[in-house]
Fold these 2 entries.
Entry 1:
Amino acid sequence: MSVLQLTSAVYDAIRAHGEETYPHECCGALLGRRTDGGWRIEASVKARNTRTDSARNRYGIAPAELVMIEREARGRGLSIGGFYHSHPDHSAEWSPIDLAEAHWVGCSYIIIAVAQGKAAAVNSFLLAGKTEEDKRFTAERIEILESRKTRFESKKRAQSS
Ligand SMILES: [Zn+2]
């Protein structure tokens, strides 16, 4: 099972975003680095939900916005490691539409359940497979990195370099 590491700041930010946009879906990108077992996400970027026609159960990031997010990631020495969106008053399980609209094989897709305006369960799914035809979601474990640990680790990195 792959592991998605999230800093506690990212975890709090994406949950807050889901509460902010309730009863509509929120969506955004996750920036980080690859690890042996998955991704370590260090930043999240809010995106505008382009699905204004049916924002309660569809989400989408405009291509132009995605280009800007990729540029931001590169500028910070990070890559796009996945995406997140919320499910207002619905479980944190992926839908057939979620799978159809997921195209980044090897990336993580987080779903945040928001129940009556409050963020509830958070699940992550790795988009596994090689092509559009055999892609599938596999559940992964979320590991929250406490900010104290993150600070300690970045200090250690700074000393060793
Ligand atoms: Zn969904």
Entry 2:
Amino acid sequence: MTGAGVGRTSNGYLLNMAISDSEIAQVRGATDIVALISEYVALKKSGQRWTGLCPFHGEKTPSFSVNAEEGRYYCFGCRVSGDQITFVREMQHLDFVDAVRLLADRAGIELHEDANAGPARKERQAALDAMQRAVAWYHDRLLNAPDARGAREYLKSRGINGELARRFQLGWAPDDWDALCTSLDLTPKLLEATGLGFVNKRKRRQDALRARIIFPIFDPSGKAVAVGGRILATAGDVVRPDGRVEPKYKNSPETIIYSKRKTLYALNWAKDDIIKTGEIIVCEGYTDVIAFFHAGMPRAVATCGTALGEEHFSTMRNFAKRIVLAYDADQAGQSAAASVYQWEQKHEVDVAVARFPAKTDPAELALTNPDALRDAVTNAVPFLQFRLNRVLDAANLSTPEGRARAAQPAMRVLAEHPSELVRDQYVMQVADALRLDVGLLRTQLGEILRRPVTREVPNAPYEYDGSERPATIAPTPRPGLEALRLKLHAPQLVGDRFIARYFVNEVQREVFKGLETGDALSNVIDALERRGDEQSARLLAEMAVEDVPRDFTAEDVTAVVSQLLRSAVAEELKNVERDLRSEVLSPDVAMITVRDVKERLAMLETEDGAVAERDLREWLLARTSSEAL
Ligand SMILES: [Zn+2]
């Protein structure tokens, strides 16, 4: 990751603050999207569009479509969409800024990153350099220093030989106050920027980690950004002179180069195998990760001293669709189920849980029985199945009473899942396991679902409204769609004959308003996404690659205007009726209004159509402004 001024919006899109909008537009404009995508996918001209096999999902018939002029792609199969920048981000797993830089290089455009970004970038670069030097220094100590013998022996006892220690660049922080600071002559500023040390009360530089085995942490591109240190003691707590317990693991603090909420240990080494297999294994600790690599599954990562969270999911989804939690059962059981289901749904990934034989962890298993480790991953069960198994395993299934008692907790576990279709399949499974009537269980589940929800995660990152994710764009009224097509493909014919007020469908209206800005399509889609209006963004993304005949005529526009007017007027007449009932309008006025409006509707497709169109438009606008009062 590069670029200090990078923020993530709600939709996961990285907004860049260092590269100006006009330069981003310039990069998009200079990048031929067909040529770009052709580097990865064979595209064929088909009508106005280019089509090919989607690079984002496996398919045999092409449903991936590219609009060369608008610089957009859309897949009718998996519904991914985007522009040149998103394509590079997805294919090369880059953040927004790096993707823009790559495309700029490709097009020979020099970016003038703004004045603030310059020094920040230098500072970051200096911190990255210092971190890399520290990692090398720690590593050398582990391999060569006499005082690291205990560390080497400990690692060997955990199955980590010299080769693995080199592969993961493990290190040793000696039992000393300032060995690192002084050897590398790190300035107080660099100590702060890296978290490798600090200035103590006596105004002396001090190392952050001492007498610990060092696990360097890299970003996905392989730059060292932080270190984790593990104490050497194999059993029991180490108590400091002041009585506090020394933590087993100590990680770098958050710095300008390291965010623990986003970072996954070993992703830099694991990503190739993750992409190849479509699977990512999430462990609890760094040694577990190394164990998976050692056992021939080099697709394991670990969180860095923090629980698995939303930002980890948005990173992982770029690499794999199946996420296997390789936690010990109790730990996995404690994961907040509600958030796991939310993230599964939001990021379109499947979360499964690997089950290890009792009282073993992956690191042990890799040493004693690597086959069992592999089986645990292969046989990982969906998160809900895992939670359900735990309830059923704990129940006494040998008596009718025991089975009946298990029903309630089992249904509570199922109730957490947001999808009715998923829940119902498990209801049948529970009915089988407990030998209970499926109808009774459904009733019980229904009762639980009707109770007010007590959220497991009070500060959920976003509100889940309980509805299913729409499988596709909700069917929207045809005249509105036609109008949007005309606006998109024949703006000069349309002129200003459409207004937002004509669109009775909210999704279409938002798309229209976006198009009215005259901004580039990608910007309009970005803006809709940023506002959280996914439906409108998706509709526009899909329309952008539609193959449409180009020979629109003024008559097409007139026909669509009349249809739009009819539906908009019909909606508004309902409001007139309401006003009549609530005596806002007198019966006389209402009657005249309805008569006038209907007369003009009838005129729409006659010679006086233009006059009727103007009158109706004015009437609609007047009704809107009177409502606003
Ligand atoms: Zn696709």
